[in-house]
Amino acid sequence: MSGTVHFSVENGVGSVLFDRPEARNAMTWSMYAALGEICEKVAADKNLRVVTFRGAGREAFVAGTDIEQFRAFNSGEDGLIYETTIDARIGQIAGLPVPTVAIVGGWALGGGLAIAAACDFRIATPSARFGIPIARTLGNCLSMANTARVIAAFGLSRAKRILMLAEVLDAEEARACGFVTEIAEPDKLDERVGVLVSKLSSNAPVTMRVVKESANRLLAANLPDLRGGFERTSEERRSNERH
Predict the structure, then answer these.
(1) CA dihedral 70, 75, 79, 81 (to 10 degrees)
(2) Is the pLDDT reported for residue 242 higher than 60?
(3) Is the dihedral of CA 5, 162, 74, 21 positive or negative?
(4) Residue 86: what pLDDT?
(5) Strand-pair category, 129-131 with 107-109
(6) Burial tier of 117 (Cβ tally within 10 Å: 0-12, 13-18, 19+)
(7) Residues contacting 85, CB < 8 A, separation 6+
(8) What integer pLDDT is reported at residue 243 of this predicted model?
(9) Is there a contact between 118 and 90 (Cβ–Cβ < 8 Å)?
(10) Whole-number average pLDDT of the chain
(11) Counting Cβ atoms within 10 Å, is residue 240 exposed (0-12), middle (13-18) or buried (19+)?
């Protein structure tokens, strides 16, 4: 499958680009691996002040994980490995020591929403849409950490609508609950991103790093292991398929 994740740096600002526009930037295993390597570079670069994340084209930020990646799954253990891997990549983004900004145009679904939620700020176009419709598609489960991030980002009631009703929220509702920092028209998007990046670049790095670390520790405190729940879900799915 085609697609890659690019990384560039200019004037202390790192830019991550999910580049697979023909598939709405849906992620492949190789793209997730590239994302992990980029996060390692960012974490080690003491000269970076801010990192942005965006999708190529105008249709999507990231429209989740490419469904073709799941066709080779043979057991519930494959699903557990997948969730562990995704959780690690999202955790790397959340744990970056510098402020992060998701630039969302179009669809941010599944893993794409998880990536956006792991960032510190989100600027979206009016066409942005946010959801994790797994209840009516793959029927899998998020990791406990990613579920906690969705609840922290949207509030419990909206999180249940996203995860249980498989609803997709528009940009206005996402801004109303504080998930989206600002909505900008496409022709003004780069300008508004530049303003936010400039503000973040001029603020005290130590303060922002400590705030991020404190928030991550509070969010992760006493998270239970949902492995048993994943295994039960996998067994129930196999049982339903047999009947």
Answers:
(1) -110
(2) no
(3) negative
(4) 86
(5) parallel
(6) buried
(7) 32
(8) 52
(9) yes
(10) 89
(11) exposed
